[in-house]
Design brief:
Helices cover 54% and strands 8% of the residues. It is mostly helical and 406 residues long. Keywords: Heme, Iron, Metal-binding, Oxidoreductase.
């Protein structure tokens, strides 16, 4: 699906119709020429050193000016329960909007304000995902045709997202964007179609917001149940950064933290942000194990299930064990087709390295300065249906500052 017969397994019209109203002709909703064009353009931009530096600076600034102050405001507060998932969603939304649009929604300000754009984007994503859960596509298509119920609400929220995005693009058109680093400004140099620009950038917001928040939420839930892993990460960072001098790691320092890299990968093995992915068989095919796949068949692979299979990961597959990624003290990557958390082959995530750097910097900054405990120690993770893995009812935690590190 992702390698040898890649061309025979496109997303397909069925998938595109489900997300078409929200994502339009964005990269995550198209095949063929449009996909190749956006893939090539995005690859050129995201591999640019100045773009990577710009993204890193945004993350560092958001950590220092907002994330740490929010945690500090809750540290030690009696009955001060913080929803970790909500905070990470706010953080990642601010960061990806700055990176994609050059827009600061300010979701993570100390007052934790409500962002009209974020609320509309959330609801549009949720309602779009629910289309896939209906018994028959005909049901939601009829509701859309007659503008009823959830489809009426979806139309209203997408209209709001469109208005906000179109106003921003129009504003950018009236500016000199040649010196701007955000993706929208850079894409404008090659694309004149404002509707197409909207589709491309909305896709980046979807990819860079919910996946990061999901991965960080489950990572800290795992750490709360495996305190020895958190201590090992803290000790590794003290060895490389010192115990008090830095709140945020440099890019070079992050590369030296092999155990942190292993812990993050191990967390996503058990809790991938995108739990499954589907493609549609374009022509009759035979899988490597001999299974016949008829033309038009929907074929799904399931990273969540694959990460828990003994035949792939061994008898300890259900254990959170970062050491499985370490060899002679060095982090060792595995075959991406064994670990398709970022997909693999032609569709491998272009933002993979940037996402990992963001996750590691956020996690490290919090681990070095705070003790984070579940408000309910017996809290188990349950996920709500959606495009990414979202923990039902959030993740309430207590926060305590670490003496001598602030």
């Amino acid at each position: 699906m992702l390698k040898k017969r890649f061309d025979n397994y496109p997303k397909g019209k069925q998938f595109s119709s489900i997300l078409g109203d929200l994502l339009g002709r964005g990269i995550f909703n198209v095949d063929g020429h449009l996909w190749k064009f956006q893939r090539k353009m995005a690859s050129l931009e995201l591999s640019n050193l100045s773009v990577k530096s710009y993204a890193f600076e945004i993350v560092v600034s958001e950590i220092r000016s907002r994330l740490i102050p929010v945690f500090s405001s809750f540290a030690g507060k009696e009955n001060g329960v913080l929803d970790l998932q909500d905070v990470f969603r706010r953080f990642s939304f601010d960061s990806i909007c700055k990176f994609s649009f050059g827009l600061d929604p300010g979701c993570l300000k100390l007052s934790l304000p409500v962002s009209e754009f974020a609320v509309a984007f959330d609801l549009a994503s949720k309602l779009s995902a629910e289309r896939a859960l209906t018994v028959s596509p005909l049901i939601w298509k009829m509701k859309r045709f007659f503008n009823l119920s959830s489809e009426k609400k979806l139309r209203e929220t997408i209209k709001l997202v469109n208005v906000l995005a179109e106003e921003l693009i129009k504003h950018k058109r009236n500016m000199d964007v040649s010196s701007h680093e955000d993706l929208l400004s850079r894409f404008m140099a090659n694309i004149d179609d404002d509707k197409f620009l909207r589709d491309i950038v909305i896709s980046f917001v979807l990819a860079g917001r919910d996946t990061i928040a999901s991965a960080l939420t489950t990572f800290f839930w795992l750490l709360s149940n495996h305190p020895h892993v958190m201590l090992a990460i803290r000790e590794e960072s003290d060895r490389i950064m010192g115990s008090k001098t830095q709140d945020v790691a440099s890019f070079e320092q992050l590369k030296e933290m092999h155990y942190l890299q292993a812990a993050v990968h191990e967390s996503m093995r058990l809790f991938p942000p995108v739990q499954f992915d589907s493609k549609f068989c374009q022509e009759d095919d035979i899988l490597p194990d001999g299974t016949f796949v008829a033309k038009g068949t929907r074929v799904t692979y399931h990273p969540y299930a694959m990460g828990r299979m003994e035949t792939i990961w061994g008898p300890d597959c259900l254990e959170f064990k970062p050491e499985r990624w370490i060899q002679d003290g060095i982090f060792k990557q595995v075959n991406p087709f064994k670990y398709p958390v970022f997909q693999a082959g032609f569709r491998v995530c272009l933002g993979k390295e940037m996402a990992l750097v963001e996750m590691k910097n956020v996690a490290l900054s919090l681990i070095r300065q705070f003790d984070i405990q579940m408000a309910n120690p017996s809290h188990t993770l349950k996920f709500t249906p959606g495009l990414t893995a979202t923990v039902k009812n959030g993740l309430p935690v207590f926060v305590q500052g670490i003496n001598g590190r602030d």
